[in-house]
Design a protein that fits this description.
Blueprint (H helix, E strand, L loop, with lengths): L5 H8 L6 E3 L6 H12 L7 E3 L7 H13 L5 E3 L6 H14 L5 E3 L10 H10 L5 E3 L7 H4 L8
Parallel strand pairs: 1-2, 2-3, 3-4, 4-5
Helix pairs in contact: 1-2, 2-3, 3-4, 4-5
Length: 153
């Protein structure tokens, strides 16, 4: 089970000093990711979050995407080696369209569906702040990536 619970969430909601949080490889899973996302919605102090190599899949990634859409302090989010699937990927596509502060998003090896590459490309044309988008080791076909602006990667 996840070690991320309401107490951590409350601590993060009341945080006014912590700027970087690395929870890489902590088996957070969906429950913990949802708790973190809820806590980070209004946190504008935390600018860097590393959640790579956790067991975050659909429900957790959907919650994180919704958080990114409205969070105004987060500059870098690492979700490498988690499982976004279609619902989570759609959540991040919406977040990319809405977020005006995120500079770096790593979704390497997250099973981001190639069939959503056109929607991702459209989101990137709307977003004016994202500078680094890491997509490696996902099941994209070459023709699916043609519509994605490679100047950002």
């Amino acid at each position: 089970s996840s070690g991320i619970n309401a107490e951590y969430g409350e601590m993060l909601q009341q945080n006014y000093t912590l700027s970087s949080l690395n929870l890489c490889n902590n088996h957070i899973s969906c429950v913990g990711a949802k708790a973190l996302a809820s806590a980070l919605v209004g946190n504008d102090t935390l600018s860097e979050v590393d959640l790579s190599s956790n067991r975050i899949s659909r429900r957790g990634s959907e919650s994180l995407g919704k958080m990114v859409a409205v969070n105004s302090g987060l500059l870098s989010l690492n979700l490498r080696s988690n499982g976004l699937d279609t619902a989570g990927a759609n959540s991040f596509i919406k977040a990319i369209k809405q977020n005006g502060t995120l500079l770096n998003l790593d979704i390497t090896n997250t099973r981001f569906p190639g069939k959503l590459s056109k929607e991702l490309a459209k989101a990137l044309t709307v977003n004016e702040t994202l500078k680094i988008l890491r997509l490696g080791r996902n099941p994209f076909k070459e023709e699916e990536l043609e519509s994605v602006d490679m100047n950002i990667c």
